[in-house]
Every structure is written in structure tokens, then in C-alpha cells.
Helix-turn-helix domain-containing protein
Amino acid sequence: MEVIAIQKSTLDGMKNELKALLEMTENAVRKYTPIFKEEKWLDNQEVCLMMDITKRTLQTYKDKGLLPYSKLNRKNYYKRSDVLSLLEAGHPYNTNDNEFIDE
């Protein structure tokens, strides 16, 4: 077993930094937990399957601002409630009013 000796002031500094890091983590969890508990988030594949659309159509919805999304680590996520709202409104690509072409 290896024993390493450090000064008490260095140990106290490390403790303080760890406490600050823990506090920052707890604050982030406290801030974002309600968002994820209230809402189910879906990825691209889940949305395409749920709406029975292609990835290209999904991209068009995003480009036209019809379906809001959030990006996390280069991956898109959609609120389930937003997808359901779009489904209830009907598939926008089936109408010519908003420049979509019938598929």
C-alpha cells in the first residue's frame, strides 16, 4: 500500500472544490429534473415511427418550424406533446397551403 502525505491546506482546498462541484451538480439536477419528469422526449426514429413519416419529412418539419426540437450531444429530441399536437392537426405535408407536396 502506498501512502501519500499532503499538506492540510491542500486537502482543505480539495474538499472545498469538491463541495463546490457537488453544489453545482445538485443545482443543475434541481433545475432540469422537472423538465424531464413532466415531458417524455423522443428521438428522430421514435418520431418517424410514431408519425409514420420519413427522416426527410421530419427534417422538413424542423426546417419549416412545424416541430420544435432540442439538441443534446448532436442528437435531436422532440417533446411527445409537440408530436401529438402535430398529429392532431393532421400531417402538414398532405395539404398544399404550407408548400408541402402530397406524398
